[in-house]
């Protein structure tokens, strides 16, 4: 792989600054804060040891920095539920489903079709109802987990019924039940 020249890096950073300067002040603030966090992740990458944080179980709710992403990819700092049955303690990534809050004044009937209303008091220390975002499931580096990081941190977990509902929604999204018998031509 070619190492970029200092000039190439300067050009790329100048282009990035120019692009950011054209954004709204709010987006400039969001992306600037993300760059600071991203720099911290890059600095910690070589020394991060996932075995020093808890082993997360299926259904555990973690607070995750999804970062600044493009288009409609989920970004920012949000709760997420662990989807994996058996995540390796030493593995650097974990599969999660982002969670969000039901907006004030909204009802479960207002939840987007792609999302899944889970109910109230899911995360006991927040006053909001919880909504899962199955279309945004993804693997994240365990470095992105903000909390819980130790036994004394607050923990929450989805119930088996919630996890079953999420599994069913993901299956519906990915696997369409055929309405007629499908025959595969072997010729």
Ordered list of secondary-structure elements with their pairings:
Elements: H1 6-21, H2 25-44, E1 61-65, E2 77-82, E3 93-101, E4 116-119, E5 130-132, E6 138-141, E7 145-147, H3 160-174
Antiparallel strand pairs: 1-2, 1-7, 2-3, 3-5, 3-6, 4-5
Short précis:
By secondary structure, this protein is of the alpha+beta class. 27% of the residues lie in helices and 18% in strands.
- Contiguous low-pLDDT stretches (5 residues minimum) are 181-187
Secondary structure class reads alpha+beta
Radius of gyration: 20 Å
The main sheet comes to: 7 strands, antiparallel
Mean pLDDT comes to: 89
How are helices and strands ordered from N to C?
HHEEEEEEEH
How much β-strand is present in the residues? 15-25%
Number of helical elements = 3
- Shape, per Cα inertia axes: globular
Specify the helix fraction band.
25-40%
